[in-house]
Amino acid sequence: MVRPNFDTLYSSAWLDLTTEPMIVSAPDTHGRYFMLPMLDMWTDVFASPGWRTTGTAAQSWAVVPPHWRGTLPAGVGRIAAPTFYVWIIGRTKTDGPADYAAVHAIQADYKVTPLSRWGTPEETIVGKVDASFDMKTPPELQVDSMSARRFFAYAAQVMKLQPPHLTDQPILARLRRIGFEPGKDFDLARADPTVQRAGERAGGRPAADGLEGQVARPRREFLVDEHRHDGRVRELLSQARNRDAARPRGQSARGCDLSAQSRRFVGQAAGRVAPHVLHFEKDALPPVSAFWSVTLYDPEGFQVANPLNRFAVSNWMPFHYNADGSLDLYIQNANPGAGKEANWLPAPTGPFNLTMRLYAPKDAALTGQWNPPPGVAAGEAAAAFAQSRGGPATDADKATDADNKKAPNKKAPACAGAFALRDSRSADAMVSAG
User: Under DSSP, is residue 305 helix (H, G, I), strand (E, B) or coil?
Assistant: First the structure.
């Protein structure tokens, strides 16, 4: 998982469709938000049953493998999988630890049933582990340590079951020039001597940074429907150097560029970070059909210990709104004081990263008509921070305070940056602090 959220509890399952379809069942969540995004072996989301798409009544869907033509039981929907293996990364909304028991009860009723077992008494399946597989060395290291001959031979075998993606044509055309064709065995030792020598020289991850500039920085073009979004990811990953560069990032969410790996932090390169405020006008609160949150991470993408054990704030919380209906969220290390703690997201004294998630975002967020506000050192925060540095507030500090009071949604100071939208309608519309 690229960066865990605190808004939902996860449910994960792998489906093996090589012998028959699998039926995925969800209970009636009585209006509670949930989603069961299904990823193929290329990490494209091809289906996402849940609150936004199918509703919250009890339902079952048969996930069928490619070219399957059988008959399904009455009342069971059909979802065609592009590959024979499918990963489900389920999420169920939670309103904090006190709500976990209710969520766990729902999770316990998520079921996966082989089609041949449908309608029979439940039976716990005991998995069988193939002892010949290395279960300790990370897959990335296993692949990196392969010789060129082993790598291409293994790839040829995998492609017999998992055919290349439709967008892989460019690289497949190049591979055919050395005799590699999907669906056929390949032995590098029988290739042209020039090709063999090139394979022997290959190693490591050349151009591992080739993807950095293309997907590391969120851009408005990525804020599109999830399926089209992942298609864009596939186009990028269809280039060999980019696919290799993306692999270490863990593209398990919904595609590599959704992995929140492009992190620009709030704070200076060194030293303490000033208190910041996210100010939302009454008519400019995050536009969602479900809910939204702001989560704080350290530079490594982990939560930061704090006295409240609060790592995110969400609109289900009892926020204190201003008299005019606007909302201020306080992002700072010290408790902001009475009447403000409900709106406090505790922060470290050093750099950190904010991620905003919009669940079932409305069109205004998707089209750019709405943008989240920058985090600014507003009100007395700049002066207080200046004094913490050992001196009075400077004229620049005071000018910043005055400007922020007049226009709290204006461009942020350089140390604060701004938010940039990044995700899709069918899942978390994520906003990463800039």
Answer: coil
